[in-house]
Amino acid sequence: MEQYSFIRINEAFPTEDLVGRWIIGLAVIHNDFLFLRKQLFMRTKDISEFVVEAPTSFKFLVASLRGAIFYLEESQKHYEIKNYIELLPSSLLELHSRLTPLFRTGHKADLLQRLTNIRNITYHFSKPHRNEIVEALKEIQDQKIFYEDTENRFLYAEHIRNSIILNSLFDPEEIKLRTNNY
What we know:
Distance between the termini: 51 Å
Largest sheet: none
Structural class: mainly alpha
Strand content: under 5%
Number of strands: 0
Number of helices: 9
């Protein structure tokens, strides 16, 4: 048996309630993550379809995670929200505390910078003065890829985009180290 709940929006989330508006923002972030998680881990029998779609889902997930971190970080600037967070159950406080090191001032801010790099570069690499496509082309110039025009996709573009994502996430020395270990 399914359970149903009814809420009157203006009673649950009055427009003047900052904490209520903040909760709505968290709910939107939560729903986005549910969708993106489903997309990223979608089961398909066609491995080539997964190989093409997983990096795109990853790119969207990274952008959403980055946005969520900034959302939580900005929330700390408001006394009402900060006070509300302190009153949350311990399980939610633990989850929140796992994200705070990723804030710009946190001790794991380098990961946030990597997420920012992936987001900025993979969404904006078309700027003429940027060099990401040239670097990716140099890196994979001797590779051969299979192309089959059944989905109207440019598989070479996927391959280059994946190289750009890796180069955005890791510096060249990290990539060499990881590649040499396999």
